[in-house]
Design brief:
Number of strands: 0
Order of helices and strands: HHHHHH
Strand content: under 5%
Number of domains: 2
């Protein structure tokens, strides 16, 4: 499972993927964040945690783009946390319940 990484972006990508898989486990997310801080310490102080998280193998920014702005995503999460149903939020944004569920479920990333 684990291997040695000589490529910092590849390591960051793998840590970020693992973090996304463990999003529902706060202890695992905290552990991954601590690992990222150790990587920063090993590679020097000239890189921040946010820069480290943004490093990835996806340099071209390929893939499907989100249909929602960050403001809309925040609104969706807030509405869900305040008890509004996923279906009513989906109707408001003219999309499927699955899309809303994914946004509301991944808001801790």
């Amino acid at each position: 499972m684990w291997k040695y990484y000589t490529n910092l972006p590849e390591l960051c990508f793998q840590l970020d993927q693992f973090r996304r898989d463990c999003v529902r486990d706060p202890e695992a997310v905290e552990l991954i964040d601590r690992l990222m801080e150790k990587v920063i310490a090993a590679y020097g102080d000239n890189i921040t945690v946010s820069e480290l998280k943004n490093l990835s193998l996806n340099q071209r920014n390929a893939g499907r783009k989100s249909p929602f702005t960050e403001e809309q995503r925040s609104d969706i999460v807030l509405r869900h946390e305040n008890g509004e149903t996923l279906s009513s939020i989906a109707e408001r944004y003219h999309c499927s319940v699955g899309v809303i569920h994914k946004i509301a479920g991944n808001h801790r990333l």
